[in-house]
Structure formats: C-alpha cells, structure tokens
C-alpha cells in the first residue's frame, strides 16, 4: 500500500543538551567513558545534602521558576485541609482495595505476583527513596495540580532548571502512566520526567481514575481532560505552546494512543467518537511515543488471565454500558477501522518495546505499528533486545550509564539523536536481583 502524502509540521531545531547526572547538579556533568556512572555512596550523600539545602529554600527557588499566572494555578491548602485530604484518601484507597480484592479472590497467581512485586520494591528501595526525596523536596516539582473536577484529576509538573528556562519557552511532554488500570499513579513517571526535565523539557504527568473507582470510559475522560488542560496552560509554566509530545507507558500507552486516534477521527468526521470526550486539538501534538503499550486488549485477555489479571476483572475494566468492549477499546482495532482517513493525519509515532516483555509480548507492538503503517501513519518501531516490561523505565535508569528510553524519547522531542549518561542510583547487583523477581 502506498503511503499518502500529507503535510507535516516542521520540527523545531534541536537544542544543545547537557549531560547531567540524576541529581541535576552542575558538578555532576557526566563524561563519556570516565566511570562517573558507577554507583558511589559518597557522591550520593553529597547529592542528598544539596537537595536538602535546595528544599530549605524551596519557596524562594520556586518563585524564580514560576510566572504569576502559573503561581495562581497552584493550590494553597491549609495544614488542616492537607491532613483532612490525606485521611480521606486513605479511607478511599482502603475501600477501593477491598472492592478490587473481590475481583481477584484468592487466586494464587496474583498472590505470587503481589509478593514478587513487594520483593522487587524492597530491593530497589534505596533508589526509590532517592526519588521520594526529590519528589517531595525539589522546588522544580509541582505536585497534585487539579486539571478537572473528578476524583484523581491531578497532575505533577516537572520544571526545567532555571538555566534552561532562561533560553526561552520549553518543549513539552505529556506523560500518561501505566499500572494495569488498577494501581497506576502519576508519580510512577517521576524518574523519566526528572531525566527529561534535567535536559530542558517541561513534563506533565497525569493521574487518572483506576478501577474500581472508574472504568475505561472514565479513564479516557480523565486522560482527555488532562491533555486538554495541558494544551491550554503549558505556556504559563514555561512551555512554548507549539511543541507538545504525548508519551504513554503500558496501560497509559493504550489510553493515550486511543485518545489520540479518537480525537483525530472526531476532528476529521465531525462527529463524536468513543474515547474523544472532552475534545482537544490533536494537531497540537507533534509526536506520540508508546512504551510497552497494551494496544490490543482482545489479544491480551487470555495472556493476562494466565498471569493473574483475571478475565472477569479485565472485562469489567474495559466495559462500556456494562458490556465488555475489548476490540472497541484497542488502538490496533480502532486504527484498522478508521484507516487512512485518520492514519495520515496522525503525528509521527514511535513505539518502544522490550523483546523479553512477559506482561505485554512484543508481538502486540509489532502488530500495532503494522496497522498504523497500513493506515498511512508515520510510525516506527524500536525493540529493546532482552528488555522486560519494567527494565527500560525502572531498572535501566537506576543502573547508570546511558538511559536508552530517555534518550529515545528526548530524540523524538528535540528532533535529533541524543546520547546522555548519568550516575548510577544503585549497585548493579541489587538491580540484577530485582530484575530476577520482577513479576512484570
């Protein structure tokens, strides 16, 4: 099939990139081949000291990073309101966990996966703690900004450092996290968002309702609402207003891809489409990156059932009007249905996937890219040899050296090939052990 011609927006000229370590300090500029990416407890302690100092001056630092318009968007709850919200969230999480357990029952598969996940998290805990400190202390992280009126309609913003912002408005990434539609949370994207923001990119990480608080229709509504909010408000936080890239990981890849295709279809057909409410202008998206995405739900149903995400739960998540709609909610099926009328109007697409992904086999990504190309889309596939579902986004960034996923996303955003190195966050043997027990 010949690819129809279409006018593409000319990419912005690439920016010079600094090769920074994972803690943003000018003293941590990495040097290729110097061994600086090896884990060092002494250097890690120095970074914690710098972060603590930065945290003490957080309000002053943040004031220098934000415009008055941006500061007006930030919530300013009292201490009592903060604690009231935390207690309310704790009660809600407990209630939803009880409801979710009714679907899972006492199946041995999910029990094994749960305890493997606990061990995985314990082994990587020193690395996660570093991110926790950054997440709660850094003046560059704006947490839980409301983007809508529904529960969990919140997003985190990762601001580039001041020296980047002084160069002018920044390119913008909208990140939709994964989490098997049940345990997703906006902070899961913090490691990638931090790395991108270190290199001059403004990043928004969306939260959305998970099951059983909401089903697929609610999740899509939240994702669309969040994207629309970012498109309207990014300039207030230093975005350039014309260079947006949408990135989705795992379940977030399915939701983001579905929302993008549905918006283009709705724009072309001038009629409502499933997954396109509320509406936003898809022509503002300069590119889409899918990471380990679940693009064919129908093909994955049996596979995920065997891995502990049981069919009754899977179908309950992906239901519309009380009926399972696995095909209708699959980006692969949707792009085949709408064809060239939509495909040739999509922005460039980059699909990244590990060949050893046990949760979402790589064939799902291969099939999606083939369907996109058949529909006339500009789509590319890059397979990470030997990588699992989590290695590109969790273990590899913590290992130090080159963060290949971050480089691939950054290359898409800036329009030229990027290579960066950073300091290790953990000793390699802990990461190797964690990878061995990872249930994904």
TrEMBL record:
| EC number(s) recorded for this UniProt protein | 3.1.1.n2
From the UniProt record, which GO molecular function terms apply?
A: hydrolase activity
Positions of the UniProt region annotated as Disordered: 1-40
UniProt domain BD-FAE-like: residue ranges: 155-372
* UniProt keyword list: Hydrolase, Membrane, Transmembrane, Transmembrane helix
Q: What class of enzyme is it?
A: hydrolase
Q: Where do transmembrane segments lie in this chain?
A: 112-137
Q: Which residues form a coiled coil?
A: none
User: Which InterPro entries does the UniProt record give?
Assistant: AB_hydrolase_fold, BD-FAE-like_dom, GDXG_lipolytic_enzyme
Write down a Pfam family by its short name: BD-FAE
Q: Which catalysed reactions does the entry list for this protein? A: [protein]-C-terminal S-[(2E,6E)-farnesyl]-L-cysteine methyl ester + H2O = [protein]-C-terminal S-[(2E,6E)-farnesyl]-L-cysteine + methanol + H(+)
Query: Member of which family?
Result: Belongs to the AB hydrolase superfamily. Isoprenylcysteine methylesterase family.
Query: Which protein are we looking at?
Result: protein-S-isoprenylcysteine alpha-carbonyl methylesterase
The species this protein belongs to is Chlorella vulgaris
